[in-house]
Amino acid sequence: MSDPSETGIIAKPTTMFGSYRFSAEAHDEMASAPGEPRPHWQKFASSLERLGRDELTLRWDNARRIIREHGVTYNIYGDPQGMDRPWELDMVPLLIPPAEWSHIEAGLTQRAHLFNLILADLYGPQRLLREGHLPPALIFANPNFLRPCHGIEVPKNVYLHLHAADIARSPDGQRWVLSDRTQAPSGAGYALENRIVLSRILPDEFRDCQVERLASFFRTQRDTLHGLALHHRDHPNVVLLTPGPHNETYFEHAYLARYLGFTLVEGGDLTVRDRRVFIKTLDGLQAVDVILRRVDDGFCDPLELRGDSFLGVPGLVEAVRAGNVTIANALGAGLIESPAFLAFLPTLCRHLLDEELKLPSVATWWCGQAKELEYVIKHLDEIVVKPAFASLSRQPFFGAKMNTPEKEKLIAAMRARPYEFVGQEQVALSTAPVWLNNRLEPRPVVLRTYVSASNDSFVVMPGGLTRVSTAAEDPVVSMQSGGGSKDTWVLSDGPISLVSLLTPSGQPIRSGRSAAEIPSRVADNLFWLGRYAERLEGTVRLLRCVVARMVDESGADGSPELTALAQVMVSLAMLPKRFSERVPLKDLEAEILLLIYKQDRVGSARDMLTRVRGIASIVRDRFSADTWSILNKLHIDARSRPRRIPLADALTLLNTLVLDLGAFSGMEMENMTRGHGWRFLDFGRRLERATHLVKLLRASLSADVKTSSVLEPILEIADSVMTYRRRYFAGVQLPTALDLLLMDEGNPRALAFQLAALKEHATYLPREAHAAVQTNEQKVIAAITSHLHSVDLIALSQLREAGTTEPLDSFLANFVSEFGVLSNQLTHHYFSHTVASVS
Amino acid sequence: MNYEITHITTYDYSHPVSVSHHVLRLRPRELTRQVCVRNEVRIDPHAAVMKSHTDYFGNPVTFVTVEGAHKNLVVTSRSRVEVRSTAPPEPADTPAWETVRDLCLDDQPNDAAEACEFIYNSPYIKIQPAFAEYAAPSFVPDRPVLEAALDLTQRIYRDFKFDRKATTIATPLEAVLKNRRGVCQDFAQLEIACLRSIGIPARYVSGYLETQPPPGKPRLVGADASHAWVSFFCPEAGWIDLDPTNNVMPSTRHITIAWGRDYSDVSPIRGVILGSGEHSLKVSVDVLPLDSKEALQLVS
Questions:
Q1: B272 → closest Cβ in A131, A321, A837
Q2: Cβ–Cβ of A834/B21 closer than 8 Å?
Q3: Contact (CB, 8 A) for A627 and A664
Q4: Is the pTM above the cut of 0.80?
């Protein structure tokens, strides 16, 4: 080991890499000795040194902003932060030199090939069992052995279309596979997003280090999945089946679906008819050829698999059996995730491939064998005991951390059903530098690698998801327990092919016809997204109007306008009854702040933001990255809290929200394709705007409110003050104000404008070929429109000003109820859902 | 013996169901001692899809889809079955029960390899010390396995009361053991749990039972129900059936439909309906002997 002072610029202890200290008990990925980067790190290290700490800090802030704006999230079950925790990405990638990578690549290809052969045997002839190469308990006691899937032929005999392996490195530098993922491997999408962020914040380093690109891997995966179609081979319909927005990696499901051009579906979006799988779209049933599943196989069909599953599709197994749909990974592939298999891989590899296992697995003892059981019990303090069969619920046991009664209990359980346990050696993980508190610190890492089937062979992703343990001493690396991640740079000897460059913002490589189809559930969500976004805007505009007047009046006891607005809010049920009388301004202020910030108050701005966010995240694969950024900004902006001068802060926040919402609706108008999805979104928005307007007018023109005090604020809320002034050159009068807000088809805030838009949408919404000339929606819209035009506004206004409120009120009330009818009709026509139940 | 069997299942739904899928295990399987001469399944309303295959355990299965709104569903299965009697081995001549257990623990492939599938936990039957304790008085050291198993069967028959109201499909076996009440399905699964808990392979058999009316009363059509019993593995002899509900070794009056690890593998009809609301279920089974009558009375 050389003296750090002799190794050039990097070795100076004051530099970032020079002052990097790691434990001598672990292998460090970056440094061979203190201050001495390994050869393949030197170019990167000197480049980072040149940037300097301050620049790195700036770029790190930039990276965090990109992650927030892209809305990269990971849901942690039971996390106090709630859903959608921001993804943790470290600045420093893990670098792997070309020679080491070819070794890993060869090992992973062999492994995927081997696993596929084992699965093909176990779900077919089971020679491995009959000839004694695998003990029966490993399969027969394994809950992941899906008997209904035995004997079903799969196309090209491929069971594993995506295989993931977690690789660790022991202190001697040797790489070991810790575990495999064959069920529905996650993380490839996060690896891609990590790459997009890092190549953006470290563009020069990324270019200079000659890093292998990831896009070709995803292209292979997409082409492989297309190639699995048994029908419609020219335009196969591939869907990505997700458990839904509550799943920990939902972000990734939506992200990959958009990136690969697949339709994102939940179990309820699919149905089996005539032993074929269909997606329920607005245009009716569309055949599905291939399902990329992120639902565990046992949950995929309540008819033949787990009856308690709500995530699956009844009849799916029969559709697979009939050869009408292909599922990736094949149903049943989760079997081989069981850690118990690791103990048998070397012999199986020799038997099935006539080769030595190139990439060894961590030492594993399956307790179903008498000798192994005794060994594990004897060495309980050095060994980790795990369930032999993959399962979510059970945690590993660390003998060294258990007391005697706990150990005795574990040993008793192991003796009762030994085949349910494995012992595994604990590998001291290698460390890699992470950027923390403006310096580099060592943290344990595990590399998750991905292998995709490709024709007759397998292709390895040149890179992967490097996962980082939170604490320097933590033996378990898991995103679920709150660890972070790194980009993984596989370095190349030669030039990097430019063909495989990533499209920077994650646009689809090629979008098939499937991307255009809208499941009914998605249309339903878009409709409600439109409604809630508009409801939020209406609320925010009303609150802003009130708060602006309170800020002006600070100290005074409130203007007539404020009194009128409080009365309006009481009749809109936004404020308690007592506010219809004159109350101290302080009370009103407190109540208004609650209406803005209080999370669990129904109808508060915060509450509606949460709803908007919740619905938007369900349909996020429908939005461009830019639109999603705006939604995210809205979410982040809304988190701010009032500080010194609460009202002034609130006003700033409300102004920001109005702008954010404007940007969102602008994106929606300018950047969304005018497909059915957009029509439902805008239908919801128009319907809500119309409803909100008539409700506001009704509340404002009731008997108690002074008309003269309320007209100006209403025009302000409806964003029509300027138009009014330009058009009427006069103080605000009731008949002219009503004319502008109700009848004016040129005013985008007017009722007539909304009705015209709704009419157009209703014309273009999908309908059955044999349907009547006019749909029910069209009929209701026509009736509402004629109700609007049948009225004499001047007469109604004169009556109101003379104190007779009833005619105007019932004129407005009629709209409210008719809009409710319209909403129900639309829901009934397009979104009616059915629930499955098992008997 | 020859039988004409009519098995009618009627579902009534509180709300119309738009699509329903069902998996039927209603066709008696072929055995050396049993021939299914004819089987016919009728679905009302008409099924859009009816497709048969053989399941993992070798049972005939039919997948059925009914499309279009329906408020009820009637599944009628008619079978003509011929059952021959077989001579069971002499209990005292069967191997000691420990040899059966040890065969399954052996790492090397052997005669019991396929039977070993039936010593582990299954969805409805979990191995528990309590079941091993219940089995212990019958399984004394070195006792021939069939002798021990017959003793266990007899004890369950004596200790447990047949009671249709005591259990449902969801009642855990621990509760059956504690309350000592249940129906044929419970007794079969309980005996399987006992056998598996001491390491003997045991499977669940679903089938029909010919029952006779009390002397002098006319035979009631549809009074019979579907039945369930146990089969355990005995080296050389193979699988041997036991009926703990009636304390007999099934012979020509038991008609086998299917077998599996427990009820979940062989339920006669399993369905998923798309629609909301409740459903009610009515089952009637009629086992009509076409030959001479026997006097014994059995319950299912």
A1: A837
A2: no
A3: yes
A4: yes
